[in-house]
Amino acid sequence: MAETDHRLLMLIDSDPAQTRLITALAGREGWRVMVVKDSKSALTSFSTKQGMQISAVILDQGVPGDNACDLISEIKTNRPALPLLMLTTSTSPLLAVEAMRAGATDYLVKPASPDRLMQALRSAATPDTRRDELTPLTEKMPAELDFDAMIGTAPPFRDALAKAAKAARGHGSILIEGESGTGKEMLSRAIHAASPRTKMPFKLINITGAPANSLESILFGHEKGAFPGAFQRQTGTFENYDGGTLVLDEVDRLTPDLQERLAEALTNNQIRPIGARHSFRVDVRIIAASNLPLEELVNAGHFRQDLYELLSHTKVILPPLRERSGDISALTRHFLHRIGEQPGLRPLSISDSALQLLAAFDWPGNVRQLQAVLFRAAVFCDGDVLTAQDFPQLSRMLGEQEESAHKPSQEGVGIMLYTEDGHLRPLEEIEADVIRLAIGHYRGRMTEVARRLGIGRSTLYRKLSDLGIDNAA
């Protein structure tokens, strides 16, 4: 703690409740917090002795309003290296672009979870970590809701999508496992959109983002007077979303008591609010998401066996991006197309050298991190093509890689041409990769795939059979 006690956070915020929350969260991380309530006081504070010690700034856009970007620019003019995070209720990609161009290090849409807020603050204040300028920026772009939006041809990924698509047509619980950033939330939304409940409500609850002492009430509700402070009856999520889909993200973080409560509710399809004498029936489909393998937690005694079985009628495992690096090229082009449609941005292409740089990184934050990196690069790109120079953080983390300049190029638009010993790969393997890439790029539209490859559909399907490529890939 001694290493961080000197860190001072300036919080520009006029909301007392939010100020208390951020001050408490930052305090746990070893920050001292200086609160200012208006733009003028903030700018004046920088010239004081205490102001010279400021290590980071959190700005609520509600304080300066439409002048938020001007305030960011003025702060960055005086303190160019100072990390600055902006909180806002706006989901406008244009505002995100303007804020970042003005100098914001990150942009968080309220209500931001405590974990997300602290992750952004840690990342901004520790520029040497692998997360520097690789923080999740995906909330700036509207979520896509169907399976076609999930790009990739790697067999484990296609198998996961096929299993999820089949399960979507039923009503049973689904467990989605995978590292953070692999696309669990997106897959959950695609499952709901493809399910018989598509017209019914959808709700995602992040277990770690909800206050631990009120999570039971959030899920099950409570009666008036059930506990100190329960001044009125509150309906829980199960009741509010009856007939719909409820996603429990990071379900592995449930406390033992809540695991027991949830197991009981799922066994009987009934819920009982805190303080209520009677239970009542609900019909809610559960999609559980976990960053950790739940079966291993069960075996270690950290997760209930009965709850695991209730949640995993179908289990889908999303592979990390490092295990499907062949998808990076198609994902990159897909994201750049979507980013180019956002207000304030324009379509960009990407050079082979930049693709090679992206393929060389191991992406600990997975697909979400790739999208965030591309978003940031697009914001600051002055030309029409992203090059390796537009990814300075990746270049620094990977090193100069001078040796690679003397080796044969390993990629041609996402296809590996050479083996590790420098020899060309067999033509059959390259052809199989080209077909997989085309299927992913054109989202499984086989007529378009055949047309773009210059072959007939019957020839395409014969090649799929000869090369052992799954038709669903």
Automatic annotation (TrEMBL):
PROSITE patterns: RESPONSE_REGULATORY, SIGMA54_INTERACT_1, SIGMA54_INTERACT_3, SIGMA54_INTERACT_4
Boundaries of every Response regulatory domain copy: 8-125
Location within or outside the cell: Cytoplasm
InterPro entries xrefs: AAA+_ATPase, AAA_lid_NorR, CheY-like_superfamily, Homeodomain-like_sf, HTH_Fis, P-loop_NTPase, Sig_transdc_resp-reg_receiver, Sigma_54_int
This protein's record includes keyword Transcription: yes
Alphabetical UniProt keywords: Activator, ATP-binding, Cytoplasm, DNA-binding, Nitrogen fixation, Nucleotide-binding, Phosphoprotein, Repressor, Transcription, Transcription regulation, Two-component regulatory system
One of the GO biological process terms: regulation of DNA-templated transcription
Keyword flag Cytoplasm: yes
Modified residues (4-aspartylphosphate): D60
GO cellular component term of the entry, any: cytoplasm
Residues in Sigma-54 factor interaction domain copies: 150-379
Pfam families given in the database record: AAA_lid_14, HTH_8, Response_reg, Sigma54_activat
Role description: Member of the two-component regulatory system NtrB/NtrC, which controls expression of the nitrogen-regulated (ntr) genes in response to nitrogen limitation. Phosphorylated NtrC binds directly to DNA and stimulates the formation of open promoter-sigma54-RNA polymerase complexes.
Name the UniProt record assigns to this protein: DNA-binding transcriptional regulator NtrC
